[in-house]
Amino acid sequence: MNEPSVGLVTVVPVLVAFIMPILTLKFRSRFLYATITTVTTFSVAVLTLINLVEVVKGNVLTYSFGGWPPPLGIVYVVDFLNGVLGFLAATLFFFSSLYMYWYFGKIESGYEWLSTLTLILLAGVLGCLYTGDLFNFFVMLEVLSISSYALVAFFRRRKWAVEASVAYSFIGALATMLFFFGVIFIYASFGTVNIADLVVKTHQDPQLISKYLESWSGRCVGEWCYGNVFISSALAVALMLWALNFEAGLFPNNYWMPSAYTESPTPASALFAGIVDKVGTYGVIRLFVTLFTAYGAVLAFPLWGIAFRDLILMILSFLGLVTGYLGALLMFPQKNVKRLLTYSTISHIGIIFTSFGALVSKIPLSASAEALSGILLHMITHAIGEFALFIGLGTLSVVVGSTNLTKMQGLGSRYPLLTASIVLSFLSLLGLMPLAGFFSKFIMFTALMNAGLPIHAISVILISGISALGYFKVIYTLVVSRSSKEEEVKQDRLLIPTLILLVLTASLVVLGIMIIQGAVINVFMSYAENLLSIEGLSKYVNSVSELSKVLGGG
Amino acid sequence: MRNVDIELIKFMFMLTVISLYFNIAISLYGVVAKANLVKKLIALTIFQDTVNMFTILVGYKLWRPGLLLQPPVLTDLSPTSETLREFVERSVDPLPQAFVLTAIVIGLAVTLFLTTIVLHVSYHFKTVNVDEIGRSKRVYIHEEAV
After folding, report:
1. Of A206, A303, A474, A523, which residue is least crowded by CB atoms under 10 Å?
2. Which residues 6+ apart lie within 8 Å of B105 measured at CB?
3. Which domain does A100 fall in, by range?
C-alpha cells in the first residue's frame, strides 16, 4: 500500500537542501546549519526506522509517486534488504551531522554548502536503496554521484582535492551514463523499467504472474518479448555492472578511491567509506538476487560451459579476491591515516564481493542464504566500524593539523576515551571475537566453505591477517609510542566526537553480544533465505501488483 | 515501389544504428585516451548525446504502407476509442523521450560541474593535461609515503 514514510525519505532532505541556499542570503551562523542538518537527518532516520519495524514483521512496503499505478510511475519498494540498509544509512548520516557541530568550528567557511551537499547525498543514497524502478535508480545514482564529486572538491583551494575530484568525476560521469545505456537496453527488450514487472518478465514462472502489472506493460510470449532478451539482458547487465562496481570500488575501478576519500572533508569521507560504497554493492545484490535469479532463464544461457549468470558472479568473486589482497597489502606502507583507512575500506569491499561466489545457481539455498546474510551483516559492521574510524582519526588529524601518522604519536594518553573507541573499532574490523566484526566474517567463511570454495574462504582470513599489520601500526602509534617533544597544545576536549565514537563502538559490542546469544543470526538467515527463495520474489511482486490493482482502479 | 521504400527505410535504420555505435566507440576512446581535460569533456558530451539519440531510436516505429503520414497529434477534444486506436497506430513510444529529457537535464548538471572543476584545475596546476598532473601527483604521493 502507499506508505508515506517510504516516499518521504527522499523528499524531505531534497526540500531542505533546496531551501538552505536561500537561507545563506540572511544567516551566517554555523550552529543554524548544523542544527537544520541534524534535525532533517534525524527525522529521516525516524522514517527509515518506521519502515524497518514494518519490514521486520515480514511486510513489503510500497509507495507510488503521483498516484500512478506501478509500471507507469515511479514506485519505491522496501523489503528486508533495503530496509536494513536504509536505516543504517540514515543513522550514519545523523551521526555525521552531529559531528558537524564540532567540525564546523574547524573549517573557515562553507558550512552551508557542506550541509546542503550532505543532504543531497542522503537523498541520493536513500533513493538508490529504496527505489523499485531502474530508471529512477539511474537518476538517484546521478544525484549521489554529483553530490559526491562536489564533496570531494569541497576544499577547492587545495589542489589535490580538485585533482581527486577530476579523477573521480570524469570516469564517474561515463560510468553512470553507461548505466543509463544499460537501462535503455532493458526497456527496449522488456518494455518496462519497473523492477517488479521485470521480475515477472525475466522469470516466466507460474508463481510469478501479475495480471495487474501486465495489463499495463504487456506480456512476454514464450521466451520472446520485443527482441532477443538474452543478448540485450546480457548487454544491459554488463553495462550496469560497470557503473555499480565503479561506485562500490571493485578492483579495476577503485583507482579514484584513495585520493577522493583522503581529500574530502572528514564527515563526508566517513559517509563515503561507511555507506556510499555499499550502494554499489546493494545494486549488484539487487541485480542478481531479485532481477536475474537462478530461477529465471534469461541469463542462464551457457558461455564456456557455465551459465552466464554464474560466470559473472564467479568473475565478481575473483575480482573481490584481488581487491581484498590489494587493499590489505597496500594498507601497511601508508603514512597518511585517511589513505590507510581507504585501503582498509577497499579490502573489506573485496571480502564482501568474494562472498558473491556462494550465490551461484548450483549451490544449495542454505549456503547461499548464509552467504547473503554474511554479506548483509558485514556491510553493517564494516559501515559502523569504518565510519567510526574515519570520524575518530579525522578528528585527531584536525587536532594535530596533519593527516600524517607520525604526527599522532602519543595522542592516546591525551584522549583516552576517543583512542579506546578507535582501538575497539579497529579490532571489530579485524574480526576479534566478542565484537560484531568477527561474526560477519565467520558467517562468510562458513558459507564459502559450505559452498565448496575453500580458497575463497581461506582468503577471507588471510586478507584479515594481512590488514592486521596496518591496523596495529596505527594502534601502536596512538597507544604505545610517545611523542619526542612534549609541547603544550591548547587542550580541546573533543566532547562531540568522543560521544559519537562511544555510541558507535557500543553498538558494535552490543551487536556482537546479541549475535553470541543467537538472536540476530537466525533473523538474518531466515530473511536471507526468504530473499533468495521464489516465495520471497513472489511476495515482492505481489506487493507491487496489489498497489497497481488499487491505484489502477481494480 | 512500396517494398523498395521499406527496404530503404530498413537500410537507413541499420545505418543509423551502426553509426551510433561507431560514435560511442569514438567518444569512449576520447574520454579514456585523450590527455587534455577539455577534449575529455567534449568527448563525454558527445557520448551523452549519442546515448540520448539511441534512446530516441528505441521509441521508433517502422512506417508501413497504408499508414497516413501525419504528425502524431490528437486533434479531437473528445476522442472516441476508434480515433484513439488510430492515434496509437501512428504515434511513437513517448516514454524514451521522457527518459531523454531527464537524462539531458542531468547531463547539463554534470557538464556544468565538470567545466567548473576543469577551470579550477587550470588555476591550480596551470595546465589541463592529465599526464603532467599525474607526474606531479606521483611525486607528491612519493613524498607523502617517504
Report:
1. A206
2. none
3. 4-483+492-540
Q: Does A230 touch chain B (CB under 8 A)?
A: no
Confidence of residue B66 (pLDDT cuts 50, 70, 90): low
How many structural domains compose chain A?
Answer: 1
Number of domains in chain B: 1
How confident is the model over A286-306, as a mean pLDDT?
A: 82
Check if A184 contacts B (Cβ < 8 Å): yes
In Å, how far is A160's CA from the nearest CA of chain B?
8
Residue A3: what residue type?
A: E
List the beta bridge partners of residue A2. Answer: A62
Asked if the structure places residue A551 within a domain, the reply is no
Q: Which residues of A touch B102 (CB under 8 A)?
A: 135, 139
| End-to-end Cα separation, chain B, in angstroms | 78
Asked if the structure places residue A552 within a domain, the reply is no
A335 touches chain B (CB under 8 A): yes
CATH code for position B15: 1.10.287.3510
Summarised one tens digit per residue, pLDDT across range A366-418 is: 888 889 999 999 999 999 999 999 999 999 888 888 888 888 887 878 888 88
User: Beta strands of A229-341 (E only): which ranges?
Assistant: 302-303, 306-307
Provide the chain A residues 403-422 that lie in CB contact (below 8 A) with chain B.
404
| Domain span at B75 | 2-145
**pLDDT tens, residue by residue, B113-126:** 999 999 999 999 99
Q: What is the ipTM of this complex?
A: 0.91
Whether residue A484 is predicted with pLDDT greater than 70 in this model: the reply is no
